[in-house]
Amino acid sequence: MNVNILNSEIQEFIKKNIGISISKLALQKNPFPEVEWISILNQIEAKTKSKDKLPTWFSTKNIIYPAKISIEQTSSEKTALYKSTIVSGASLIDLTGGFGVDDFYFSKKIKAVAHCEINPDLSNLVKHNFEQLEAKNITCYSGDSLATLTSLNKKWNWIYIDPSRRNDAKGKVFMLKDCLPNVPENIDFYFKNSDSILIKTAPLLDISAGLLELKNVKTIHIVALENEVKELLWELHKEYNGAITIKTVNIVREKLETFDFVLNEESKLPHFCLPQKYLYEPNSAIMKSGGFDEVSTYFKLNKLHKFSHLYTSEELIDFPGRIFEIVNTIPYNKTEIKTHLENKQANITIRNFPDAVESIRKKWRIKDGGNVFCFFTTDENNRKIVLICNKIK
What we know:
alpha/beta; Arc Repressor Mutant, subunit A; Rossmann fold; eight-stranded mixed β-sheet; 15 helices; 19 strands
């Protein structure tokens, strides 16, 4: 960590160049020879990436940023805030501290937080930033987190882990045993130090595969931000062997779209019908969960087809996802498409349909965008149809 980067003139230069092309700046002469030009450029690029993702860091003076990849990989403040609602108690240890965004929010709920980071430079940088952020109840530990957990020799209310994939695991199916730390291998040791464990994984991890590797899972949180799934959170409690709850969360601006259900619980079979007045498309968190029948039964909506994962009703309801009014339902054939869509503009979505979006656009010369939304899908009678809609939400 180069403290010279905190020179007031350098900090002002960084501030003035937020959003400026790094490739253009790289061609300029370094106005501050006491600091490597690449270090200053990195601060500009990383801080620019933090503007929307980490507004608290962005607006706080004398923050030092790591490489931009660390900013890209870290939790956003919005998802970190959600994670903080899961934990409680007096103490939490984060075995994979990174840039410390999650710990900053944990510290607002937990009396004492330990931030463990194997990279000593990053650990020092994060410690400095916590001081600027006045997060006084976070202690930073540099070195191997297992060794830190052993040496501290105490019982924690929570252990938090965000394992990263090993470089030699590229191209393999994503499994927790291919990550560092190896959670399945160390799970018994973790439970000796805490009765509650929260694990963050990338959305790439298949839920059924994760359940094969983990034990004592009580809740799985699927967290999306603006309809893009960002992370899976696995809540483990020692000795717990009951039903597993799936919590889907879509953070839309400052609101939460939520839908919960119990995994593998026997539920009523969904009803199927032809398209009615309104169409409902679940948000990405629900799509990741696989709880399609549960959506139908809970919201009392009809499904269009077993594999279409689109829902319909005559009466409008509130729903965690996109809502449309169906203007027209047409069969997918040459005559109908030429009449209603050829050479026109529309937003296209496919669900349980054999052709790709680009193939459809090219074949019928349909331009992207506009106010018309078309769903190319399959109805309960296995007929290919197109739903021409206006968006309500």
